[in-house]
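Input structure tokens:
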């Protein structure tokens, strides 16, 4: 049974002027363009587009629309306007079909048209008039095989495209591309066939004055959130801070960000100031706890966990019997002289643990696979990296370890340090927790680029702290 079965009555509802947003992404930052649009979502979309959507007077008696459902106000309001027929069932979670979708907009302004010639839309089809009108007005068309497929489920991307045609909204391809390159939606690239249509649907903006192919004016990005880190937008570099906001009009380490968020490197080098030093040896004897010790140094340099004792940070590490992806293997205080377990914790789990000290902020991320250029950019932006290198900068050598019953060949002379500066002449500034040869002293120094980069490029393992 479709949403609407009868010949739709004329309604007094009209579409809003301007270009308000009418569709949004999901909490995980995805848009899911190929996901089916549900009937509840269709109701929400149309509700957002209508001027005075709560002005309807008709009754609504759906038994499958709970009063506290997120879509209930939209469904009941559109039913009261006559855009949905009243009945017992609405079926909010079922897919919205092509026929049902065009029927919603047809009811806003019924327009007669010659019957469309589709073999799967006979004259007595419940939506024949609606489909004929929609095709005549260019809202959508049939498929190459000559069919219309009225019962085919509509995707979210297709819905955006149809609505933009109905509302004569073309989208700004340049603005859409920039926002998508900044990571507006995790699953929509600027090359997506509906990129401009999706951004047109999701972002509040002012349309062009002449109503032709759109070119939006300046956008207010203050309320928008993007994935943290560097983003290449066209041939320009931008940076999003850990709050998800594009950095504009300020210095960022060795960079300067302009009003549009475009970065220019203004200094060749940058060293993070006021990095506290923790030894994994002095007074604590955490002989294999270098990952956590280096991390606490960076965490406090970023302004977090100032009152957390090193021993507490070490003792509260998540643990695993053999898999560093799940927690620290063994004890940070006791080396495994048998070399049977790989006593370490990998960056993803370390980042998860460290972020629990950041008052709800996401400071740390897995940085495995990063190139030297990506590492240098983070350091120049004032960030630091817990780098998994080797003890005393020796060439990495490998042993076989048993990880949850499976043999893995891993670096045996693993050592983690905090990388907190870069200078093309001096190399990389290191806060090294293993002060074996200078007990009781701060072991922070510049390591030459050739040595550092040789080992980094072999391992490419670390955790970035932004």
């Amino acid at each position: 049974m479709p949403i609407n079965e009868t010949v739709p009555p004329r309604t007094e509802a009209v579409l809003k002027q301007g270009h308000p947003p009418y569709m949004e992404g999901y909490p995980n930052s995805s848009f899911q363009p190929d996901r089916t649009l549900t009937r509840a979502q269709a109701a929400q979309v149309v509700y957002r587009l209508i001027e005075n959507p709560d002005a309807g007077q008709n009754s609504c008696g759906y038994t499958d629309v709970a009063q506290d459902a997120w879509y209930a106000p939209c469904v009941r309001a559109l039913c009261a306007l006559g855009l949905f027929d009243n009945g017992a069932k609405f079926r909010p979670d079922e897919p919205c079909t092509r026929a049902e979708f065009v029927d919603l907009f047809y009811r806003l302004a019924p327009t007669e048209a010659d019957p469309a010639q589709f073999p799967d839309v006979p004259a007595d089809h419940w939506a024949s008039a609606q489909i004929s009108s929609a095709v005549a007005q260019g809202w959508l068309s049939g498929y190459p095989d000559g069919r219309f497929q009225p019962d085919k489920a509509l995707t979210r991307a297709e819905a955006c495209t149809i609505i933009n045609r109905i509302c004569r909204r073309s989208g700004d391809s340049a603005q859409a591309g920039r926002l998508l390159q900044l990571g507006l939606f995790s699953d929509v690239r600027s090359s997506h066939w509906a990129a401009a249509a999706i951004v047109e649907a999701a972002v509040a903006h002012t349309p062009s004055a002449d109503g032709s192919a759109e070119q939006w004016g300046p956008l207010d990005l203050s309320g928008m959130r993007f994935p943290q880190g560097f983003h290449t937008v066209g041939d320009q570099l931008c940076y999003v801070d850990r709050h998800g906001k594009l950095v504009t009009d300020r210095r960022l380490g060795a960079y300067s960000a302009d009003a549009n968020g475009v970065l220019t490197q203004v200094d060749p080098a940058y060293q993070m100031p006021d990095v506290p030093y923790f030894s994994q040896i002095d007074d604590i004897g955490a002989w294999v706890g270098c990952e956590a010790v280096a991390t606490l140094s960076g965490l406090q340099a970023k302004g977090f966990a100032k009152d957390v004792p090193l021993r507490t940070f070490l003792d509260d590490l998540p643990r695993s019997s053999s898999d560093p992806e799940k927690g620290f293997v063994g004890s940070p205080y006791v080396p495994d002289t048998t070399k049977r377990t790989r006593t370490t914790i990998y960056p993803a789990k370390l980042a998860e643990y460290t972020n629990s000290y950041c008052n709800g902020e996401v400071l740390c991320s897995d940085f495995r696979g990063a190139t030297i250029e990506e590492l240098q950019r983070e350091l120049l932006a004032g960030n630091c990296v817990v780098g998994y290198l080797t003890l005393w900068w020796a060439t990495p050598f490998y042993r076989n370890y048993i990880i949850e019953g499976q043999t893995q060949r891993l670096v045996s002379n693993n050592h983690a340090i905090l990388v907190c500066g870069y200078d093309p002449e001096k190399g990389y500034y290191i806060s090294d927790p293993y002060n074996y040869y200078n007990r009781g002293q701060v072991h922070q120094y510049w390591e030459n680029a050739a040595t550092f980069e040789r080992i980094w490029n072999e391992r490419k393992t670390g955790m970035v702290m932004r």
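The longest helix spans residues 290-301. The chain has twelve helices and 18 strands.
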